[in-house]
Amino acid sequence: MKHIPCRLQIIVNDCMFSITANKAMKLARRFDILGLDRELQPRMELTLVVRRTTGSDLHVPVQCHIDTLEEVAHSRNGGILNYVLRGIAKSAR
Q1: pTM above 0.70, yes or no
Q2: Torsion 74-80-82-88 (CA) sign
Q3: How many angstroms separate the CA atoms of 12 and 7, rounded?
Q4: Domain segments of the chain: what residues?
Q5: 69-76 and 80-92 helices cross at what angle (nearest 10)?
Q6: Among 56, 59, 64, 58, which Cα is nearest to 17's?
Q7: Per residue in 11-69, pLDDT tens?
Q8: Residue 62 contacts residue 15 (beta carbons within 8 Å)
Q9: d(Cα 72, Cα 70) in Å, to the nearest integer?
C-alpha cells in the first residue's frame, strides 16, 4: 500500500486543528480531540483520537492552529465577528 502525505483539517468551535497523516485512517466512525478541557493557548498540542469501526483507536498528536493570543480572544468570543461587535458595543458605552 502506498502512503500519500496529506493534511487533515478539523474545525471544532471555531478552532482549526491540522495534522499531517501518513497512515490510512480507514473506516473511522468517530473523531475525538483530547486536551480541549485545558485553557486554550496558541499552537497548543492536542491529541486526535480516531475511533475505528473495528474497535481500535488511533491516537495522533495534533497542533491547534490558533497562532496568536489575539486569535485566542477571537475564539473565546465565538469568532472574529462576535469579537469585533463586542468591542464596538463596549466602546459605545
Answers
A1: no
A2: positive
A3: 16
A4: 6-92
A5: 80
A6: 64
A7: 655 556 555 554 445 556 677 888 888 888 998 888 988 887 788 888 888 888 888 99
A8: no
A9: 5
